[in-house]
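@channel sequence for tomorrow's demo:
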Amino acid sequence: MTAAFVYAAARTPFGRFGGALSGVRPDDLAATAISGVLAKVPDLDPEGIGDVIFGSANGAGEENRNVGRMAVLLAGLPTSVPATTVNRLCGSSLDAALMGSRTVESGDADVVLAGGVESMSRAPWVLPKPSRGYPAGDITAVSTTLGWRLVNPRMPAEWTISLGECNELLADRFSISRQRQDEFAVRSHVLADTAWNAGWYDKLVVRVPGVDLSRDEAIRPESTMERLSGLTPSFRDDGTITAANASPLNDGASAVLLGSARAAEQIGATPLARIAGRGVYALDPQDFGFAPVEAANRALGRAGISWDTVEAVELNEAFAVQSLACVDVWKVDPAIVNSWGGAIAIGHPLGASGARILGTLAHRLVRNRQRWGLAAICIGVGQALAVVLENVSSETEIA
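structure tokens (generated this afternoon):
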């Protein structure tokens, strides 16, 4: 077995639902992320890419028919470069990266490109196919943007409640107040804005051709506790979750280039970080927001390190309450979590978020000269993924 390394990362800006990227097809967004990450390693002959693994959570619209393969072709890569698409909902692109790392470790390929894409703006409405021709009754179009749809009636009702209600239950379980959630959300926006203004995202984010969007569209640096406290709860009349302390709906794509140590000459670059440990975990579907706790613990165990060693954490902020629940149990310093902002501010285009946090973590470790970091993401229907990175770069600047 050989080790797998992150060599480069890139993503598009994340657009608002119905915003600047809503006119761009998801396969074109994915192609932009692929072109962006390959531009960072110009010496790499694309013919040498052993596989492309892309994640997407929806799959019901323009990203159908294997969006990974479509993106490879649209990006102008040789037709000999293979590609597949995976779906683990919100964890799809992190799953793609972990699959890619296993491919490298097993020796099946020396270079793998992984990533993910989601256009929540362009997710279609769907109609269930009638069981017989010419039905007499009405048929309802169902949105595929987010959450359960066309639910199997055999599923227990407690498993299929809304994502928001799942997290209201977490707030009840751990007594996490609305104030704490709002404070966490304000922090996300302030840190994301600070990171962008400091130029830390300049070498991670690539522009989408034909779109006037240079940074993540959902960041609201003017967010304050006073403003957030006036918002109405979204899921319960007396609830704690609002549109401001949960991640928004977004469009975007992300990619990471993975390779073995011996691929450095072929890629024309030195690696940034080693994939040191992976973790996957599942529990009751309604508790999905808490699943990163054990996924992270398993990843750390496989890396052979403890929480005391971790210097940087990227935890996808699906909801402020689930992020706080995880951080509280991990007992890590909150200051090391999402210090460049998180999904509440940056956005959460489902299939793209996992590779975003992985790429951000690698860049954070290199910029801050830190050795160990962890990325984790909760996944609807009761799952989570986590990965440990070890900084192996001596560079202070990233191309």
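heads up for whoever presents: The CA atoms of residues 2 and 71 lie 28 Å apart.
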